[in-house]
Amino acid sequence: MWKKTENLFYVHAILQLLAVLLVTTAAIMSVKNFSNSFNNSHQRIGLALYGIIWLQVLVGFLLPQRGSKGRSVWFFVHWAIGIAVALLGVLNIYTGLQAYHDKTSRSTWPWTIILTVQISSIVLFYLFQDKWVHIQNQGVTMGNEPTRITCQEVSVDDKKKELKVESC
C-alpha cells in the first residue's frame, strides 16, 4: 500500500510542476504578446490565479512530516488552495471566452458548450469516484450483474436459548 501511495504522490508532484511551468510560459507569452492593462475580468482573474498557483507551490514544498501537529492544517490549506485554483481556472476560461467574443464579435457558444460538457463530466466523475466503494459495499447492482434474492427469517426460541434460521 505504501508504494502505491508514494507513486501517486510523485505522479501528483510531477504533473503539478509541469502545470506550473505551462502556466508560467503562458503568462510570459501573454505579457509579451498582448496589452495587459488588467482592465477586464479575464486578465485580473488570470493574475490572481497565477499568484495563487505559486502560493500552492510554496505550500506544497512546506509539507510537514507525518504525525506532526501541523499536518492536518497543512492538508486542509493545500486542498483549499487547490480547489480555489481549479474553480478560478474554470471561471477564467469562461471570462476569456467572453473577452474574446467582446473583442472579435465572433460566436463562442460552441466552445462554451464543449467546456460546460467537459467540466460537468469531470465534476460527475469526481463526485462518483468517491462513492464507488460505498455503492459496491451496499450490494447495489449496476444492471449487468445477476440479482439473487435471499430471504431468511430469524427467530429466537427463549425456552431453548437458541437462534433458528428458516428460509422463507
UniProtKB/TrEMBL annotation:
Pfam families: Cytochrom_B561. The keyword Ligase does not apply. It comes from Quillaja saponaria. It is a multi-pass membrane protein. The chain crosses the membrane at residues 7-31, 43-63, 75-97, 109-128. The lineage of its organism: Eukaryota, Viridiplantae, Streptophyta, Embryophyta, Tracheophyta. Keywords: Electron transport, Heme, Iron, Membrane, Metal-binding, Transmembrane, Transmembrane helix, Transport. This is Cytochrome b561 domain-containing protein. PROSITE patterns: CYTOCHROME_B561. It is found in: Membrane. Residues 1-136 form the Cytochrome b561 domain. Its cofactor is heme b. GO terms for cellular component: membrane. GO terms for molecular function: heme binding; metal ion binding; transmembrane monodehydroascorbate reductase activity.
